[in-house]
Design brief:
The structure holds 2 protein chains of 2 kinds. By secondary structure, chain A is an alpha/beta fold. Chain A has 13 helices and 10 strands. The chains are: A alpha/beta, B alpha/beta. Chain B: GO terms for molecular function: cobalamin binding; metal ion binding; methionine synthase activity.
Amino acid sequence: MTDTLSRMLASRDWLMADGATGTNLFNMGLSSGDAPELWNVEKPDNIRALYRGAVESGSDIFLTNSFGCNAARLKLHDAQNRVRELNRVAAELGRDLADTAGREIVVAGSMGPTGEIMEPMGPLSYSSAVEIFHEQAEGLKEGGVDVLWVETISAPDEFKAAGEAAKLAGMPWCGTMSFDTAGRTMMGVTATDLAEMVDKLPYPPLAFGANCGVGASDLLRTVQGFAAAGTERPIIAKGNAGIPRYEDGHIHYDGTPELMADYAVLARDCGARIIGGCCGTTPEHLKAMREALETRPAGPRPSLDEIAGKLGGFSSASDGTGEAAPAPARNRRRRR
Amino acid sequence: MAEEEDDLILSELPDDELVPQMGDDLYDGLKDEVAEGVQILLDRGWAPYRILTEALVSGMTVVGNDFRDGILFVPEVLQAANAMKAGMGLLKPLLAETGAPKMGKMVIGTVKGDIHDIGKNLVGMMMEGAGFDVVDLGINTDADEYIDALAREQADILGMSALLTTTMPYMKIVIDTMAEKGIRDDYIVLVGGAPLNEEFGKAIGADAYCRDAAVAVETAKSFVARRHNQMPAG
């Protein structure tokens, strides 16, 4: 076990990951619709500033600007032939910064979903998904990331395909899904489903968990679901800074730095060992989170009521498991 | 789980058992069976429009309700929509020939600057499943493309989708442009996408925000019905 993340997990109780990528780049003037990944080459200073924002705010782990840097997404910008290059540069910019930070920092190569629906419901085959992720993984590896970081996945097969790609690239990996639909992912995966699936993978991730989704409260309920499944594997919590609100013609996330500080401590109490933010989480939020994690004592696992009291209510009555979960009113009458 | 009965022979079922069975087959996403059921009803002399409303749309309503209630998820809904499509493939030419009433027509697209399309595709499929005609403009759609398509297609409904907080404000630009041209009230405007909410829909002047594809279908139906009621009699 020689990789940086494993070593840090072995010596620390918790690690702080970074915040938003997209939201922070939009604040630097990225136009919606443009591929953020092109900035790796066109505006590297902005990407350095993005990474530095996380590191200077106390993040132990930051993600590279490569979320949509796979052939399936880049083809929408006619940049599908630049996968290797754009990933490599995203990683190199991060590597340089981490190596001069003066403390140990994990550079995590972000790998977001392909955006395609997998067979048999959609057009993307498992083997194509592996190929798409593998190409990206090789670029990130070449640029020097410490670990691959698969995130915002909703389909089980896509998660598995990314894991297989990590294996092909010979890289350790972490994987998180986005639980945004009544406690499940868009494709119906519950927290328990993911915890069980991860433990059965032939090449399991170093850590797994949840990112994005709805609000901070929902995300912590999902983290509790992972912990309740009895996993020994480190759990990742990367929630949004509240919920987007539309005011005076622009959007902002309603989670304050104080709320995210509460969220970070609650996430640790729920059982997460890698704690960060997602959309809307700025360096200001990260500083408040770091300070809270360092100064507030760990506590017992909070009840759902305590979470709702501090962070706001849940978006759905249940997380899709247990007796409160909705069940179909009809019985199937025919053998399949 | 109890041992279930052997495969049913659809053609041996009387109408009042076949129709609920087709609903179940839609729910289970069995496209060959749904197409077979449609053919049997046609052979028995059912009008195409009756098959559409009583056998298919009613079945998809159950799918939509369970999706809305968090019982079914996207994979099951896509399969049900595919099964619906198989049935519609047989009915569509016949519906046109017989001059059957139309549910309405929707022009749908993901807004300018946004390239996400899973949600938009799902709404399109569910709307088709409910019997609407759907014209899909794809991703990265600007105001002129929406407005041209609405006129060209003589549509009733405009559907706009966005997955990014940075692209959702473009919906307001489209609605404002429609208002400038004096055509805003000619159409029902529905908006949706993960970062949106009802407050946002109201703030930009849409008729409704739709939380998911099932809600979009229900909302479209009720707005179309309201419009028909407002039309002068005769």
